[in-house]
Structure formats: structure tokens, C-alpha cells
Amino acid sequence: MVEVTPRLQIVSPLTDASHLVIGVDEAGRGPLAGPVVAAAVILGPEVPAGVGDSKTISAKRRAVLDAQIRASCQWSVAVVHPGEIDRLNIFQATMEAMTRCVADLYAQVDDVTCEVLIDGNQTPARRCDDWRWPARAIVGGDGIEPAIGAASIIAKEWRDRLMIEAARHHPQYGWERNKGYGTREHMEALRLHGPTPLHRQSFAPVAQASLL
Fold first, then answer.
1. What is the tens place of the pLDDT at every residue in 118-138?
2. pLDDT at 55
3. Would you say residue 39 has pLDDT above 80?
């Protein structure tokens, strides 16, 4: 199952421009459990101070920036759940999530040329049938391009909230702390309790736990 989450609050200061930049980033490629989340952002006229790579920002500050970005920018989020990750593989699932959130965001701006800037070294171009926008991959882009940094913050915060909610239903794995990554706590719980439907069965530690 895939959720594409449309805008919740949209300010459109840039939609009269002839050219827009969409920043894209993802969160959750590496965990053993939970979805991969991609976000796409068109910045408003004033970029919140401190926007950058979400991994270098404290959780408290990141939550503040997330709210500021979503209040002042155009944005969209796509969530690809574990079942589809297993079906596609994590790389392709990430490309699909990026494609879906960009498609949703692009639909909000009419007759405007957009360039998509993506964190990393690869784009969904020629990898996803529905991708149709000029795109450029930037290694370390979340710390270089503010629109990508903003997307990284939204994606990280969105996924963290999903994992905290999931932890309420599966408290033994510590997801509110490890967010699904293969920490010692998580691995021990996986050994003792086995995988849940939110685990990625195609990931080796989960597949091995299923055989125990």
C-alpha cells in the first residue's frame, strides 16, 4: 500500500514564476522496519533559518523547522510501505516514493517549468515510468541546496512520527528510539519475538529471523 499525502497547508508565493526548483530527499532506506518516505518542497520567499541536512540538526530544532517549512512552503510527502519495498527492492521503492511526491507537488503548480534537485547521486529518470521532469542529483545536496534540506527535514520528521506511532502497537522493538534501524535493542527483540508485518522481509536480518 502506498500513501501519497497532499498538501495540508499551502502558501503559493512562487507559482507566478516561470521556473521553480523542487527539492527532494528521502528518509528510511536503511532500517529493518517501517516505510521509506520521500518529500518534495518548493521553498517560499523566506527560507527558515537553519534549514539543512536533517541528520545534523537536533531533534528539537528539526521539529521546529519542520513546522515552519510546512507552514511557509509548498510540499508533498509519499510513503512506500514495507510490503512494496519487499516487492520492488529498497532502491526502486525510494525512486517510486520520489516520483509520487514530485507528481503530487507538480500538480499544484499550473503551467510552470520545474527543475528537480535530488539528494544523492541518482534520480528516478529512466528508472520510473511516471518520471517526466528535468532532474539533477547532488551528492550532499541536503547540506547545499536549501530546498533539498527542507525536504530532508520533512521526510525525516514524517517518518519518525510514523515509527513512534508504530511503536505503540509493537512496543518490544524500541522503534520510538531506533526508528526501525538495526540497533542492538532491535536485533535482540527480532531474535526473541520474530518479525512483524512492518518489518522488511527482503532485508537479510529479518529474513534470517524468520527462519529461527
1. 999 999 999 999 999 999 999
2. 85
3. yes
Contact 51, 156 (CB under 8 A): no
The partner residues of 203 in beta bridges, in order of sequence, read: none
Alpha carbon 45 to chain centroid, angstroms: 23
Q: Output the pTM of the full model.
A: 0.90
- What are the DSSP calls for 50-63, one per residue? T-S-GGGS-HHHHH
* Euclidean distance between the first and the last CA atom of the chain, given in angstroms as a whole number: 28
Other Cβ atoms less than 10 A from the Cβ of 80: the count is: 28
Nearest to 119 by CA among 90, 143, 92, 139: 139
Sign of CA dihedral 174, 179, 185, 188: positive
Determine the 3-state secondary structure of 185 from DSSP.
helix
Q: How far is CA 62 from the centre of its chain?
A: 14
Length of the chain: 212
Q: Please report where in the chains the cell 518479525 appears, as a residue.
A: 195
The pLDDT tens digits for 146-200 are 999 999 999 999 999 999 999 999 999 999 999 999 999 999 999 999 999 999 9
Q: How much is the average pLDDT of 79-104?
A: 97
In sequence order, the 6+-apart residues with CB closer than 8 A to the CB of 62 are 54, 153, 156, 157
What does the pLDDT read at residue 111?
64
